[in-house]
Specification:
There is one protein chain. This protein is α/β, with parallel strands linked by helices. It is about 40% helix and about 20% strand. The protein contains five helices and five strands. The protein has a five-stranded parallel sheet with strand order 2-1-3-4-5, sandwiched between helices. Bound molecules: 1,3,4-trihydroxy-5-OXO-cyclohexanecarboxylic acid (DQA). 1,3,4-trihydroxy-5-OXO-cyclohexanecarboxylic acid binds next to loops.
Length: about 150
């Protein structure tokens, strides 16, 4: 059997704009900076990092299917997922996570509950193992750590 060694970090639409998009809300770290902090955390835990961003819902669904199959094959432990605005709209992403039984920790950099009411509902939370909201980009690090702890139980 192949040892479990990987963790996915998936990012949805507009997260490629991190660093320049509303820095008062999302901070000044860029997406490559976030990838670097995720890589540091994964490496610390002995995990390989598979890091992706897409502005396209179908691409995110394909990665969820891939990650779900790789969890079932014992190759990865799950996915940290910041679905961006698809959080509030996408039944298809909800169904992809539910259908693959992929262990997901949902992350939002901003505290969506302090923002517009349309950001208060998540289609992802009911199928996520947990959520980390409003702790900035540090939430990614915490989510990797949480998935790792879950994988040990
Ligand atoms: C976000 C919150 C969403 O409401 C928003 O559409 C984003 C980013 C966050 O990380 O805080 O694109 O997911």
């Amino acid at each position: 059997m192949i040892p479990v060694t990987g963790v996915y970090v998936l990012n949805g639409p507009n997260l490629n704009l991190l660093g320049t998009r509303r820095p008062e809300v999302y901070g000044t770290m860029t997406l490559p900076d976030v990838e670097e902090l995720c890589r540091e955390e994964a490496t610390r835990l002995g995990l390989d990092l598979i890091f992706h961003q897409s502005n396209h819902e179908g691409r995110l669904i394909d990665w969820i299917h891939e990650a779900g199959a790789r969890v079932k094959a014992g190759e990865v432990i799950g996915a940290v997922f910041n679905p961006g605005a698809y959080t509030h709209t996408s039944i298809a992403l909800h169904d992809a996570i539910e259908g693959t039984e992929l262990p997901v920790v949902e992350v939002h950099i901003s505290n969506v509950h302090r923002r517009e009411s349309f950001r208060h509902h998540s289609y992802i939370s009911p199928v996520a193992r947990g959520t980390i909201v409003g702790l900035g980009t540090d939430g990614y690090r915490l989510a990797i750590d949480a998935l790792h702890r879950m994988s040990l139980t």
